[in-house]
Amino acid sequence: MFFRRPSFKEYMMAKLVTLSIFIFIVFSSGLFLFGHDIYTIVLAIVSLALAFSFFVFSIYRGAKHMEKELNTINTYLENIDKIDKIDYKAHFFTQEFEELNQNLAKALKRAQKREEIKQRYNAKLKLKNRQRADMISAIAHEFRNPIASIMGYAQTLQDDPNIPKPLQEKFLNKIYNNGNKIESLLGRLILWNKFESKETKLHKSKFDILELAQETKAALGEKYKHREIIVQGKNRFVEADRTLMDVVFKNLIENALKYSKDKVIVTIDSQRISVEDKGVGIAPKDIDKVTKKFYRSGEHNWDNSMGLGLSIVKTILTLHHTKLEIESELNKGSVFSFVLK
């Protein structure tokens, strides 16, 4: 446990001093044995001693310098995880040590790059885990109410077989509507999963966008029987994915119906398509957030259907090389629009 390996400088100096002393003794002994002039012998020995001293000192300085450089490299290796920038430039006496230093510096940079990649990967992994947790929370939140309603109405029907026929029909209708809501939520999850896994591809065709808006209105009219949806504008043919554009209309119109009690107006003009409501509106600070997946805001119960509805719209429009624009004012309403050529 008391043994310690010598440093580079100590090892070099020990070898060099030993060799120098040995040569000095041999040379001095030869002078004394074969020399005749004592003054010349002493002068030669002193000169030799000075020459050896200068030589040893020069080697010592060089070894010390190289040891310092190697220690610096070793420090980098020991603290690679803490180093932000490598700005070390070595100046070795020999080409081999210079190349060694340069290669080590390159290795340090590569290690640092791998560490940066690892950190970015870990950050993405944490984000994915957080999004997965948000997704599970959103699913639990959105599914809890319709499932509880279905179970409650079904339990009531099961416990009391003598419930009047009109009330039975009402309960069954509630069960059916809540089942539709669950199916709609699952559909959104499946669609979003396709977007996330890059499985969705556009299947473009030429169709009348006004006609599609009217079809969407008719489909939603069965679900929202007591609400007014107005589709206005002129017939206009576009080249897009008809199925995905139907999803865009359904999400935008349903959002408008959900957060307003007045009529919803869908306008098709020469380029722009808009969905307008006179509802609760969105706070300015939330406008840029409502299209983010799993976003929730406690204000006005703006939960955006698991935070996927508008996010899906934004993704579909991005695939069509356009974007969703939102104009809104609290307690006055919102306009969701996009350009489609």
Structure in a nutshell:
The chain is an alpha+beta fold and 341 residues long.
Polypeptide structure, described:
α2 (38-78) packs parallel to α3 (95-159). This protein has helices spanning 8-34, 38-78, 95-159, 165-196, 209-223, 242-258, 304-319, and strands at 204-208, 229-233, 237-241, 264-268, 272-277, 325-329, 333-339. The strands form two sheets. A five-stranded mixed beta sheet has the order 2-4-5-7-6, with helices on one face. A two-stranded antiparallel sheet has the order 1-3. The chain has three domains: 8-110, no CATH class; 129-196, Orthogonal Bundle (Helix Hairpins), CATH 1.10.287.130; 204-339, Histidine kinase-like ATPase, C-terminal domain (Heat Shock Protein 90, 2-Layer Sandwich), CATH 3.30.565.10. It contains seven helices and seven strands, in the order ααααβαββαββαββ. With 341 residues, the protein is of the alpha+beta class.
Q: Termini separation (Å)? A: 81 Å
Which spans of ≥5 residues are poorly predicted at pLDDT below 50?
Answer: 297-306
Number of strands: 7
Largest sheet: 5 strands, mixed
- Helical residues, percent: 55-70%
**DSSP summary: helix tally:** 7
Look at the structure and give the CATH class of the largest domain: Alpha Beta
CATH homology superfamily name of the largest domain: Histidine kinase-like ATPase, C-terminal domain
Under the CATH scheme, which architecture of the largest domain would be assigned? 2-Layer Sandwich
Question: How do the strands of the widest beta sheet line up side by side?
Answer: 2-4-5-7-6
The dominant shape is: elongated
Q: What string gives the helices and strands in order? A: HHHHEHEEHEEHEE
Q: Please tell me how large the radius of gyration is.
A: 41 Å
